[in-house]
């Protein structure tokens, strides 16, 4: 869904209208479900670098600020996302907890960790996603799903699977009335400078741009209307510099990922949700 326009209030005396006012935030409690993307990897809090912030925390902060500005109570927010989780474990571990929290807004974004595996059954994980969205919508909550990213370079082989998954996401949204965060369609994210060193997680600026895209998907005005404007062109990198960066990426990120696959371990093993219960946001 695209952003709605700001409204104006006509002057009863027939004078000039008031300045535009932002659409009100109707949600009072938001729960984020998902994996490392919603946990916010590579966007640490400046005052707590061991805790990741990310787009969902940023979105919660914006929604809460708008509620407060309108004279409403701050938004309550929980984030159950844990890095490394595939879609069906996300649903198995987080869905009941989410429903029990009684939110009126839920983001459920996942599937990327499944798609990176050759054995991924796109239709099966899409079916599990739809069942979860139907369950959430039955509670009266609004749901925000997300498409997969359009990858480049070494990960471009995933684009066929991501495209099939995205088509299913849009179909689920049509059937259930859910919102869709269109990550595939974000032009700015085609720039490697908005991606962290591991090339599968965003930088702080990337997360902030996605938070604005989420506002747009929810039918609200983004804080930054230029959130999807591409960065200025970068000077071409020398071959030696590119080769060195690729080698470092393989050594520091691809190698450990492969080892985890071979040993059946996950980066999220032993981790718990960073914000497991709804609390007023921003946190004290």
From TrEMBL:
The keyword GTP-binding does not apply. Its EC number is 3.1.-.-. One of its GO terms (molecular function) is hydrolase activity. CDD domains: SGNH_hydrolase_like_1. Gene3D superfamilies: SGNH hydrolase. Residues 1-10 have a biased composition (Polar residues). Residues 1-21, 261-284 are annotated as: Disordered. InterPro entries: GDSL_Rv0518-like, SGNH_hydro, SGNH_hydro_sf. The keyword Hydrolase applies. Keywords: Hydrolase. It holds the Pfam family Lipase_GDSL_2. Residues 32-209 form the SGNH hydrolase-type esterase domain. This is SGNH/GDSL hydrolase family protein. It comes from Promicromonospora alba.
């Amino acid at each position: 869904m695209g952003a709605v326009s700001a409204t104006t209030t006509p002057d009863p005396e027939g004078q000039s209208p008031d300045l535009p006012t932002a659409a009100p935030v109707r949600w009072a409690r938001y729960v984020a479900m998902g994996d490392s993307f919603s946990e916010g990897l590579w966007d640490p809090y400046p005052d707590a670098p061991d805790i990741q912030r990310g787009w969902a925390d940023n979105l919660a902060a914006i929604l809460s600020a708008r509620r407060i500005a309108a004279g409403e109570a701050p938004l309550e927010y929980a984030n159950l996302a844990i890095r490394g989780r595939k879609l069906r474990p996300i649903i198995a571990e987080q869905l009941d907890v989410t429903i029990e929290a009684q939110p009126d807004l839920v983001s459920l974004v996942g599937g990327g960790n499944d798609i990176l595996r050759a054995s991924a059954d796109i239709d099966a994980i899409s079916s599990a996603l739809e069942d979860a969205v139907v369950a959430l919508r039955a509670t009266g909550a609004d749901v925000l799903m997300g498409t997969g990213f359009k990858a480049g370079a070494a990960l471009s082989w995933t684009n066929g699977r991501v495209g099939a998954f995205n088509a299913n996401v849009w179909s689920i949204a049509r059937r259930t009335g859910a919102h869709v965060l269109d990550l595939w369609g974000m032009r700015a994210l085609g720039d490697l400078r908005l991606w962290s060193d591991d090339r599968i997680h965003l930088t702080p600026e990337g997360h902030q741009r996605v938070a604005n895209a989420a506002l747009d998907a929810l039918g609200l005005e983004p804080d930054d209307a230029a959130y999807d404007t591409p960065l200025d062109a970068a000077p071409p990198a020398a071959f030696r510099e590119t080769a060195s960066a690729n080698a470092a990426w393989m050594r520091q990120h691809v190698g450990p990922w492969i080892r985890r696959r071979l040993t059946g371990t996950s980066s999220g093993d032993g981790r718990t949700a960073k914000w497991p219960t709804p609390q007023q946001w921003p946190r004290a």
